[in-house]
Design goal:
Blueprint: H1 2-25, E1 31-32, H2 42-47, H3 49-60, E2 63-68, E3 71-76, H4 82-87, E4 91-92, H5 93-105, H6 109-129, H7 131-147, E5 152-156, H8 157-174, H9 183-198, H10 200-203, H11 212-232, H12 243-250, H13 256-268, H14 271-283, H15 286-299, H16 312-316, H17 319-331, E6 337-341, E7 345-347, E8 350-352, E9 357-360, H18 362-365, H19 410-427, E10 428-432, E11 455-460
Parallel strand pairs: 1-2, 3-9
Antiparallel strand pairs: 2-3, 4-6, 5-11, 6-9, 7-8, 10-11
Helix pairs in contact: 5-6, 6-12, 7-8, 7-19, 8-14, 9-11, 11-13, 14-17, 14-19, 15-17, 17-19
């Protein structure tokens, strides 16, 4: 035991001395080290990471390093350096995320490096090629689950979005037989997925033993995906291959359910919160709400509010709604995305050493007043100069990443959010009962979560 303690002390001392040595010998970025060996600035950084990033940039400039829990996190915050982040051969996405993937989905290192490179093109190809078929089925599912809200009611807007979108999206991507098939099953899934999603960031960094409830939710979801995979191998009368079945043809080892869990999380954890934010922000800005509703009513004027068809033609006739969605994404984008530096990398006048995690914050990138005037203002009109039909976004918009690891499901996500918002606003009139909450400053991973409730009343039109 004494030898182990001695070894750990020497390791911590070596790590601290190494960081200080780097700073003195080479022109590395300014480094925030904290005063506790190994832990470094972890406590200060972890309290409110988004605020910490803003304060560090103001103090140290556009490139700086945070030493926390034995890791060097080097942030690039100037949009002129983003191209290097996304396209340099001296950084690697998979090396940056392999350990978090192991912690959150229990996929071995060997399996991850073998199969992950094929997953992005697989998902992008399936969601692009089959979008017409997927959109028709998804619209049917949204109609079905929106009808379950009844003629009127009230509740948390985020919960209303979850209870209607979760089962519809699962049915659309994983197969209708895999979707929760009763109100009780939907509620159980929502609660367990909520625990998994809310703890995902901590789960990516810490062993399961420190996060017992989160670990239970992970194992429950893995068991669910194993059953889905078993059913997916049975003969089916469905004419359209699901995304899960496409994944099954690609991943051939025992970790297939684990990859399916990651795919499930990716399909729900960002699109559903953005849908909430877009609806809440539209409702809270009367002129925006009026303009959006004018387009929606015009596009759907001959349709019933009970069974409504919103497909590609209707989406093209409601471009302002898409502007609202992209503006919500801009304001509530992830706190950070990352790459691993694999060879010495020059950014501005600094050298970033191999082993550093290179970090880019879409949340703060989207608040650059040179690229986004009045950056805190919800102003959908700013998107009218972008070519949204071709998904060509505004300069500096990096919510979907970039380079070859750009989000493979971005076109599907925009389609599903656009369709759902048109449907729910056409069918129901909403009244906000609470002010729109601020985003929480506690998280870096994924879409920003609200820091308080947002209750609404609704009535069928």
């Amino acid at each position: 035991m004494d030898l182990i303690i001695l070894f750990l002390c020497l390791l911590i001392l070596f790590s601290s001395v190494y960081v200080l040595f780097l700073q003195k010998k080479v022109n590395y970025p300014p480094c925030i080290t904290g005063w506790i060996p190994w832990f470094g600035a972890a406590f200060q950084f972890g309290k409110a990471p988004l605020e910490f990033i803003a304060q560090a940039r103001a103090k140290y400039g556009p490139v700086f390093t945070v030493f926390a829990a034995g890791k060097r996190l080097t942030f690039v915050t100037c949009h002129k350096d983003f191209r290097t982040f996304f396209t340099s051969k001296d950084v690697d996405f998979e090396q940056a995320v392999q350990e978090p993937v192991y912690n959150t989905a229990s996929i071995s290192k060997e399996s991850f490096y073998r199969f992950h490179p094929a997953c992005n093109p697989l998902i992008k190809g399936k969601l692009t090629q089959a979008q017409v078929q997927l959109s028709g089925h998804l619209c049917e599912q949204f109609n079905t689950h929106l009808a379950l809200l009844g003629r009127s009611g009230s509740g948390e807007l985020c919960d209303l979005v979850r209870v209607t979108m979760y089962p519809a999206v699962i049915s659309n991507l994983l197969g209708q037989h895999n979707s929760p098939n009763s109100p009780a099953a939907v509620r159980e899934f929502i609660e367990i997925f909520r625990i998994y999603d809310e703890g995902f960031e901590y789960g990516s960094q810490l062993p399961d033993i420190f996060l017992r409830d989160w670990a239970k939710s992970k194992h429950w979801l893995l068991s669910l995906l194993k059953r889905m995979v078993s059913r997916g191998r049975e003969p089916s009368e469905a004419s359209t291959e699901t995304l899960l079945q496409r994944l099954m043809a690609t991943v051939t080892d025992r970790f297939l359910p684990n990859y399916a869990l990651l795919m499930l999380w990716a399909s729900l954890a960002n699109a559903i919160p953005i849908t909430f934010w877009a609806i809440a922000l539209i409702l809270s800005h009367p002129l925006v709400y009026q303009k959006a509703m004018e387009q929606i009513r015009t596009a759907l004027k001959d349709q019933s509010t009970d069974r409504t068809s919103v497909l590609a033609a209707e989406l093209r006739r409601t471009p302002y709604v898409k502007c609202c969605i992209l503006e919500a994404i801009r304001l509530r984008a992830p706190g950070a995305i990352t790459r691993r530096v694999v060879r010495p990398l020059q950014i501005q006048n600094y050298i970033i050493p191999p082993g550093d995690l290179l970090m880019l914050s879409p949340y703060w990138a989207h608040r650059d007043p040179q690229l986004f005037p009045d950056p805190e203002q919800f102003w959908p009109e700013r998107w009218e100069k972008a070519d949204l039909e071709k998904n060509v976004f505004l300069e500096g918009f990096v919510a979907f990443g970039g380079g070859r690891n750009q989000c493979p499901g971005r076109s599907y996500a925009l389609m599903e959010i656009h369709m759902f918002i048109c449907l729910i606003l056409f069918k129901y009139k909403f009244t906000l009962l609470d002010p729109v909450p601020h985003p929480s400053s506690l998280h870096l991973v994924g879409t920003q979560q609200p820091d308080g409730p947002c209750s609404v009343q609704y009535a069928h039109r």
